[in-house]
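FAQ

Q: What does a record look like?
A: Structure on top, sequence underneath. For example:
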């Protein structure tokens, strides 16, 4: 698939790609060595950095898929993805409910794992679902811009 000519001439793709890869590498290493604070703050800072890198490289709202022309398609795609994720998460939420209710929590008793129902719910709803989707989307778009190098 060919890159649009206006994207190649306008966006400084190499700079955007290099900054994004650098930020993701530093972020991953910092999380690996537990040098960061709360996930919500870290992911927020990373997302803002990636957005600033894209804007600094000359990416427009259209380049990032945020303009009005793509809004309908984006909403339909997002709704479908949300539906699939919600269906999968319903099964997981059922398991969380079973683990939280004292009368049924024994069914899931496993000596290999020690995690409370509240922690499991937080990990599923916030850490996995919310805090990974937005940065991954920005990283994907930055790597797609990098694909369009001239």
């Amino acid at each position: 698939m060919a890159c649009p000519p206006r994207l190649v001439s306008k966006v400084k793709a190499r700079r955007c790609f290099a900054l994004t890869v650098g930020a993701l590498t530093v972020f991953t290493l910092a999380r690996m060595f537990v040098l960061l604070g709360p996930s919500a703050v870290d992911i927020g800072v990373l997302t803002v950095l990636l957005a600033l890198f894209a804007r600094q490289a000359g990416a427009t709202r259209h380049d990032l898929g945020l303009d009005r022309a793509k809004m309908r398609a984006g909403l339909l795609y997002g709704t479908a993805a949300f539906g699939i994720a919600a269906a999968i998460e319903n099964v997981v939420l059922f398991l969380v409910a079973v683990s939280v209710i004292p009368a049924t929590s024994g069914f899931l008793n496993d000596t290999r794992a020690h995690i409370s129902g509240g922690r499991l719910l937080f990990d599923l709803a916030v850490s996995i679902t919310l805090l990974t989707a937005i940065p991954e989307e920005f990283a994907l778009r930055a790597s797609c811009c990098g694909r369009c190098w001239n």
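Q: Is there anything notable about this one?
A: The chain has one domain: 5-147.
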